[in-house]
Description:
With 208 residues, the chain is an all-alpha fold.
Amino acid sequence: MARTASRFDTRDLARIAVFAAIIAVLGLPGPIPVPGLVPITAQTLGVVLAGTVLGPLRGLAAVAVFELLVLVGLPLLSGGHGGPAVFVGVTAGYLLGWLPGAFVTGLVAHSGRGALAGWRVALGAVIGGIVVIYTCGIPVQSLVTGLPLGATIISSLAFIPGDLIKVVVATLLTLALWRAYPPAFGRRAERRGVRSAAPTSVEETAAR
Length: 208
């Protein structure tokens, strides 16, 4: 773990902070309520983008920073929620699922060598942003609400179309950023031989 942490330079920390902020900003519009179901939130788009742009470890770190801020009480979740209580409620499994979700998204999206492949980015967004998060979230939702697991799974299918739209948006944004400013991807771009002409502006570029 210490060896991994030592690989995070100041620009990595800046990227991590920026994506934690992006996840928070995407919560400003608030949740879209669905009667009897978990509200829809745009923040999962930020989680997926953290993985597709930063990769597995830095994407995970960005989500961890965000959730730590929520845990200590900052109202950064959609609807202005925060504090320890959100980690034991109906959405707790989904919220905790963001951590492995971002990691798996980045792991798949950044697999292979050379330029990012659109199909890998999309596949990573589907596996990490949908499959992993749902796998963590649905059992907890079933437990908290008292609904049978099968019924909870069926009710959650209503969110799939919206999540697929987020996958498309995340894929397009990631590929557009890769073409416009590869250094925003850190070591992934460096392995490709791309160097930043203005490293101090990485956080500004990543936020666009």
